[in-house]
Amino acid sequence: MDSGDRWYLLAITIFSVLAFMPWARTVEVGGMALFGWLMAILMIFSPAIALAQLFIRRKRGENSGS
Amino acid sequence: MALERTLVIFYLLGCIAIGVLASRKVLASRDEYWVAGRRVGTWVNAMAIMAALASGGSIIGVMGLAYGRGVPYTLSLFAGAVLGFPLASILVAKPLRKFGKFTITDFLTFRYPHVIVRYLVPTLIVVSFTVYIVAQMKAAGITAQTLLGIPYQQAVTLSAVVFVLYVSIGGMLAITWTDVVQGALMLLVILGTAFAMMMQNGTPIDIIAQASVKAPELGQVANQPLASYLGSFVIWAAAIPVIPHIVMRVFTAKDSEGARLSLNIAMVMYSIMILAAVMVIVPVGKMSFPNLQDADQIFLEVMKNQFPPLIRGLAVAAVIAAVMSTTDALLLACSSAISHDLLGDYLKEHVSEKTENRINVAIVWVVGIAAMIFAYSPPKLITEFYSAAIGMLSAGLFVPVVAGLWWKKANLFGGIASIVMGVGVYLTVQFNPDAPPLAAILYGLPASALAMVVFSQFGSITSNDIQSTIEGLHR
To answer: How far apart are CA B126 and CA B123, in angstroms?
Structure first.
């Protein structure tokens, strides 16, 4: 497995574990539990980072190939 | 309602026309029928994956769930699905695309060659996907009933006949073409509705704050046990990498790189759509309609009362599109489980490829009609209902697929034990009336992993042929 993929999986796993900690459920921000905001952030950043990583890898591959 | 009905009729006729056009290409070849000739481009495949996952559940069900159980609970379920995409992209997309067969059962029976795997896996797929299809048909039925005034059973029958028709004759190619149109329509309606609401009510942060004053439970975590939040998250994270209608999309990609890219692009589109629905449309709807008896009606009530007929017509078409784009893929995966996985060997020996494809057509009709009859007595809270069915697949298939690809010590004993234990423990907990909703996966998945590790210590090691093929998939 690519090391970038490994780091990515580790980062989202840690983020998910933190989101499910008790403090995230009790703290409320702007009318919603912090847990809800963290899930929304996960939904935005996990695809964005994964996609950026793929494009960067693709570009590197093209550059090294040319 | 004349305008709305006309729009929907045009839309349904368009789907049938696509099926007829596709049938000219696909009915002569197995490869064309099941995986659209393995030449679907990245962006088209991305839109089709998004549309396949964004079901009636993602429009009607997701909003019903957020309305009934709160925004955090719903986001935990869909964040799990979003997380499942990179898991699929990293763990299974490349090796499975290189494997180059048709279904997830093909891989599992190659990796764990035994009659139990050959018959148990497709049976699990047929059972859970029939439940999934029933939930989608309910979404179509209540939408047409509320916004078009068509009786529920007639609406279910009409939508079922249309998508069974185009799937049965057009195969994966028809599904791909219709999914692109359906995905675009869903994005347009959900994002358009959310945008119109944001113009009136401010940003999603403002809208959540306003709604929580009137309905504090919308933003709270307290209305379900923690196990339900975690369970709903894990079910979908583990399902996406192994769920057959998504895996079949991996097989349709031109190459493994294209498969990974399409999964990630699909995930971005899916996230944006779900967040717009849950963080904008539902809170605004909750402020306007705080006491709905059936939570799944929230989007329809918003459309019915706050938007003009043209937009309502597009909304009906979008919901039916959402239902069809998932149900067509589910139907194909379900019928492939029967005709390819269960009967495939027999059919290959005894009938021509053309006759085999005709039998596929008949099987699609049988599955579609059976699901339609079940859908006449629909379940409540469709997203929770079909998520429970998908949980069974996650519990039974995630570990054997991932271990089969990445763990050399995984062997036949481990594979079989992992499927049987995962499903067995999942069902035992699921049918326990005291268990919190969707928490069964928290027992089923670890049981499956434990069984894989323990039972792989027994029996013979995997043959060199299988090992070298698996190693080749990672190069």
So the answer is: 5
